[in-house]
Structure formats: structure tokens, C-alpha cells
Amino acid sequence: DRTRQDRVSERQGAQARRPPQQALGELRNGIVGRVVPWMRDALDAALREMDGRASANPPSQTLVEDRADLSLLLRDVLAYERRWQQQIDGLLEGWPQFKAIGGGEFALMGEHDLRVQLVGAPVIDALEHRFESAVDLLDRRLYTLAAAMGARARPRNPFAPRALAESFLRAFTLLDSSTRVHALVLRHFSRLA
After folding, report:
1. Cβ atoms < 10 Å from Cβ of 38
2. Least buried of 41, 73, 127, 161, by fewest C-beta within 10 Å?
3. Gap between the Cα atoms of 75 and 44, Å rounded
């Protein structure tokens, strides 16, 4: 099928002529457009789960507080979606080179970062395993873009499951909700992914 091969070659040639920064921006827009709606869906699913727990048993004070936190998060979901996009954009600043956090010095991890690590670790492991082949393909594409931008080493993938899950959790502050709520919402995020 010669015409199909010609179309594929033509499309690949057009992609090769596109500036790498533009290709990275298009990749970012496509991924953000696909994953950011998961925040609303994850919050909604977590709230439905809380409602199910509350109707099955007399609700505990903790359950009532967590449900209230989820209701407030869902009410302000657009602000949290924007925060998540800002977190993702922060990962892309200066990409493919990354500045060392804290100027390259060793530093203690803040409480919020520690919670993100602890809450996110099991979900991140599951997502990395589930999407291993897709992440590998994306890693190779990003490596090609990074090389075209002059990078000498393989860059970190700002769209890898770890980066997306951690940036998702960083969209919420410690004042927004409890660690229990963060863990519940992240589990629903994992199911949606």
C-alpha cells in the first residue's frame, strides 16, 4: 500500500521539521488535556465512596470531617486543576535540564513532600507497572526531543506516572485536607488512569 507509506513518511517529515519546543508544548497540551479532568472525576468518586460508607454505618467524626474536606475540594475543583497544571508546568521549566532543588545541597524533606512520598508511593508503583510500555515509548520520544534541544543526557520524564501523581498531590496543601483524603483521592486517580 504505497499511498499509506507516503502519508506516514510525509507526517514524520512534518513532525521532524517542527521545532522541539513546539513539539514539547503540543505534548504537554495533549497530556494535560487528557489527565486534568481526572481530578474532578477522582474527587467525585472519592466523595461517592464516602457517601457509601456513611450510609452503611453511622458516620464517625473522622468520616464527617473527611467528607466535608472532599466537598470543599470538589467545590473549588477548578482552582485545584489550575494548581495541578502549574505543578506540571513547573516540571517543564528549563526542560530538559533541571535545576537542583535547594541549589544542589542536601536538605531535609518538608512535611508536605514527605506526605506526598508516603501517600503516593504504592499508587505510583502500580501506575508505573501498568503503563510501563507507554512510559517507555514516551521516554524515547522525550529523549529525541531533548537531544534536538542540545541535551547531553537522558532527561527525566515530566509526564511519567511518578511526576503526574506527585504533582497531582502537590496541587493540594496540608490545609486543604487530611492525608487520609489525599490517599483516598489518589487511589481513585489511579483507577481513572
Report:
1. 20
2. 41
3. 10
3-state secondary structure of 105: coil
Indicate the pTM of the whole model.
Answer: 0.79
3-state secondary structure of 1: coil
Kindly list the averaged pLDDT for each block of 10 residues, start to end, along the chain of length 193. Answer: 62 67 93 94 96 88 94 96 95 78 53 73 89 92 92 90 90 88 92 88
Non-local (6+) Cβ contacts of 61 within 8 A are none
For 176, residues 6+ apart whose C-beta sits below 8 A from its C-beta are 69, 72, 73, 80
Residues in contact with 126: Cβ distance below 8 Å, sequence separation at least 6, in sequence order: 190
